[in-house]
Amino acid sequence: NVNIIQLNPKRIEDLALRRAILASVDREQIAKAYFSQLGWTEPLPGSIIAMPFQKGYQNNYAGDTGAQAAGKILEAAGYSKSGDYYAKDGKTAGFSITYFGSDATSLAQFQNLEQQLKAAGIKLEQDNQPQSQFNSVMGAKQYDCAFSGWGIGADPADSVQYFYTSEINEGVGDPELDKYIASIYEKESHEEQLKMAAEAEKQHMEKVAIYFPYANGPSYVAVK
Questions:
Q1: Adjacent-strand bridge partners of 90
Q2: pTM exceeding 0.85
């Protein structure tokens, strides 16, 4: 599995803002909050189509990160800072994150994110929903941003089409990348398919910026 922070590009429409969000988040701190009660540590994941031990895995989470890197992205897109936050055309650079229930871990993750984004000049608001609303809110995509989790398939070359095409993301994407992903399945060599899938993921994180992984996590059960 992989735990991700998922942006809704239909509600956070500005690509520059989405890219700045990805740049500003310290994923290690989010993972620490997530694992705080488990005593678990692991390397940060760099993919949502492959586990670190899978053939074809590579770290596709590229680019400069941190508050300064995020600020450069926003300023290049015409944002200017007034007080704590950037703004453009009278609109503050910001969004809300939706999480469900009242457990301390989710609250700690929100507070971590809020501090990190504020340091980058991005305003984060809290949208806390009852656990019972999870399916309806996530199913209808009634969120700007949410914590989420996905199962990782056996073949990264097959998985890439289910995350990174415009069709999957309600028309939001990159036409050239769509063509590139389609061409993966024309290759006979599985090795080449895997390399192309990793490249497609890297390009999507840079050009579209919707999903970013922060943890894989342990598998555990309770038994009598």
A1: none
A2: yes
User: Nearest CA to 17 among 212, 214, 208, 213?
Assistant: 208
User: pLDDT confidence of 65, banded at 50, 70, 90?
Assistant: confident
What residue type is 214 in one-letter code?
Answer: Y
DSSP state of 182: H
Confidence label for 155 from pLDDT (cuts 50, 70 and 90): very high
Other residues' Cβ atoms within 10 Å of the Cβ of residue 32: 17
Beta-carbon contacts of residue 194 (< 8 Å; ≥ 6 apart): 55, 56, 156, 157
Q: Residue 102 has what pLDDT?
A: 87
Q: What is the DSSP string of 55-120?
A: TT------S--SHHHHHHHHHHTT-EEETTEEEETTEESEEEEEEES--HHHHHHHHHHHHHHHHT
Rounded Cα distance between 116 and 121, Å, is 9
Please give the full DSSP string across 133-171, using - where no structure is assigned: GHHHHHHTT--SEEEEEE---S-HHHHGGGTSSTTTTTT
The token pair that represents 222 in the structure block: 């309770």
With beta carbons less than 8 A apart as the criterion, state whether 134 and 103 touch.
no
| Letter string b/e over residues 46-78, b meaning 16 or more CB atoms within 10 A of that residue's CB | bbbbbeeeeebbbebbeeebebebbbebbbebe
- The residue written with tokens 């997530």 in the block is 34
* Burial zone of 102 (CB within 10 Å; 0-12 exposed, 13-18 middle, 19+ buried): exposed
Contact 134, 147 (CB under 8 A): no
